[in-house]
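stage 2 :: seqdesign
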């Protein structure tokens, strides 16, 4: 669990680290929309190449990005099995007794896996190059128009930022509990199904207790520092767009437009 990288900020000096968080969030949203546009393998190849280029420019190691995908392998395997068993269209490729595997099932499963992998890469790139406090400021500024509808934008941004910030902390806590349970003879890998369920419960219960305790400590710390929900606040840091921020947003939207154009041409 200690290898999980989603939510971790890596303090480096790169082009993406120096960008305004608002431009990175807007570019990320454009890329995530582009990922879900049905452009075929050529479109995914273009997006994947650009994302990998951005990772290299940000001076992050590719291993760091790929580690973020490890927790998703089980879900990807589950989705793949369900798709292959449910989808019954296309050409029949393989047959194992009552189980038939069709071409559309395999292709759609690969599409889902590629999309999820690129989504994880894009979000990991954002969190690894953006400080949690900068993330809060950026989200709050982007949600600012909703204040006219009495939406608590600062509180929403704070909750999102805290959730991202505590992902690595909770993972470390889970790893610590796993080691403590293993030292007491709990085996999560071997044994019968009943024993595995009991072992998982021995992990979940202390994790919930730890989460509630951390939430209580955080609330006390925020109250001790004078944090009041809904109060007017001033900032010591003001976000300001630079030339690179405009370039990133324009490139991301050009890529989105290109994916839409490819999808339209493919549908004709």
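stage 2 :: out
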């Amino acid at each position: 669990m200690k290898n999980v990288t989603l939510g971790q900020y890596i303090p480096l000096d790169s082009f993406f680290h120096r960008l305004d968080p608002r431009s990175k969030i807007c570019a990320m949203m454009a890329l995530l929309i582009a990922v879900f546009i049905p452009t075929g393998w050529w479109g995914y190849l273009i997006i994947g190449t650009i994302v990998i280029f951005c990772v290299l420019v940000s001076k992050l190691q590719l291993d760091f990005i790929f580690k973020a995908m490890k927790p998703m392998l089980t879900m990807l395997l589950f989705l793949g099995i369900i798709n292959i068993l449910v989808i019954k269209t296309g050409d029949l490729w393989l047959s194992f007794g009552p189980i038939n595997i069709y071409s559309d099932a395999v292709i759609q499963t690969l599409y889902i896996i590629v999309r999820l992998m690129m989504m994880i890469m894009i979000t990991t790139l954002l969190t690894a190059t953006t400080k949690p406090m900068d993330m809060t400021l950026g989200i709050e500024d982007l949600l600012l128009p909703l204040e006219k509808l009495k939406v608590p934008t600062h509180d929403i941004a704070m909750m999102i930022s805290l959730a991202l910030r505590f992902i690595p902390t909770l993972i470390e806590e889970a790893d610590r509990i796993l080691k403590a349970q293993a030292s007491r003879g709990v085996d999560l890998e071997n044994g019968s199904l009943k024993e595995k369920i009991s072992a998982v419960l021995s992990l979940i219960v202390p994790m919930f207790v730890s989460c509630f305790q951390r939430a209580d400590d955080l609330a006390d710390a925020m109250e001790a520092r004078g944090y009041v929900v809904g109060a007017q606040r001033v900032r010591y840091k003001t976000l300001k767009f630079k030339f690179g921020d405009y370039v990133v947003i324009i490139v991301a939207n050009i890529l989105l437009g290109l994916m839409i154009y490819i999808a339209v041409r493919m549908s004709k």
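stage 3 :: structure notes
- Residues 21-267 form one domain.
- The beta strands are 92-96, 99-102.
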